[in-house]
Amino acid sequence: MDFLCEIVQALVALAALSVIVVLIIAHVTAEMVTLTRHEKEKYFLTVTGEKELFPSLHDASSRELSVVIPAYNEELRMPVMLDEATEYLENRQKQQPSFTYEVIVVDDGSKDKTTEVALRYSRKYGADKVRVLTLVNNRGKGGAVRMGALSSRGKLILMADADGATKFADIEKVEAGLNALNPKPENMAISCGSRAHLEQDSVAQRSMFRTFLMYGFHFLVWFFCVRGIKDTQCGFKLFTREAALKTFSSLHVERWAFDVELLYIAQCFKIPIAEVAVNWTEIEGGVLMEYMCPRTVLSMILLSWLDDMLFR
């Protein structure tokens, strides 16, 4: 009886997901979104505490790499990731003097000391290398990544999660994937880190219901939106500046599953996409696990879409 109940719940969940995905596609193809930011979100703090205006993604690049890190209540986990990232970037700069970078931590309306923690790294490395963008209100991960990307200076733009689930040195893998994409129309290309190679191990640890829902979500994404990408949700993606401008300027969904829309937009514009296996470790304490309670997942997708549709 319990098994039958789980199957019925799964079918209902998949039906709901189908409707939501169709609605999201309709929303994506609707009129262009208006990109606005609060006055306080236009500036970052220098080491001396002075306010300085963020640059625009529309400007020419002045750094080789921008690393955009969305963070919501990450005061405890983020230091580990930032230590790993800055150590790698500093060592790379020593080995390649022409290599320049910036890290942009986007505090997505946190209630803890995420901004204060990030500012410590800005003081340590200088605001030219580490900048903090504090959002007045919580936008969701997609909104935070977009705001960071739109404020970046890099020729290449990497989005990376604050929990450090992906080994930062694997940026070399996604870079190789990006470089292998030829030709790049108008210099637009995206390289996605992927955990698809780890899927069998994770399936063994999940209930039949959650596994069924996971594969169902993957199928719906493939059927309605993104084809050719096995893992759309990995938070480790590398964009050329031109591809970032094209995709983030068109993004509507700012919360859960924004990655799906982002890649859907890229495929609509015929931007080439690579998928590269990366090292990934599940980190405890996350605000949102990818495959949490199905009812919660469905609620968050629906609420995210309604929020973007009704209150933008």
Automatic annotation (TrEMBL):
Pathway: Protein modification; protein glycosylation. GO terms for molecular function: dolichyl-phosphate beta-glucosyltransferase activity. The chain crosses the membrane at residues 6-30. GO terms for cellular component: endoplasmic reticulum membrane. It is found in: Endoplasmic reticulum membrane. One of its GO terms (biological process) is protein N-linked glycosylation. The keyword Glycosyltransferase applies. Its EC number is 2.4.1.117. Pfam families: Glycos_transf_2 (PF00535). It comes from the Eukaryota. Gene3D superfamilies: Spore Coat Polysaccharide Biosynthesis Protein SpsA, Chain A. Its main location: endoplasmic reticulum. It is a single-pass membrane protein. It catalyses: a di-trans,poly-cis-dolichyl phosphate + UDP-alpha-D-glucose = a di-trans,poly-cis-dolichyl beta-D-glucosyl phosphate + UDP. Residues 66-244 form the Glycosyltransferase 2-like domain. Keywords: Endoplasmic reticulum, Glycosyltransferase, Membrane, Signal-anchor, Transferase, Transmembrane, Transmembrane helix. Belongs to the glycosyltransferase 2 family. PANTHER family: DOLICHYL-PHOSPHATE BETA-GLUCOSYLTRANSFERASE, GLYCOSYL TRANSFERASE. This is Dolichyl-phosphate beta-glucosyltransferase. It comes from Gasterosteus aculeatus aculeatus (three-spined stickleback).
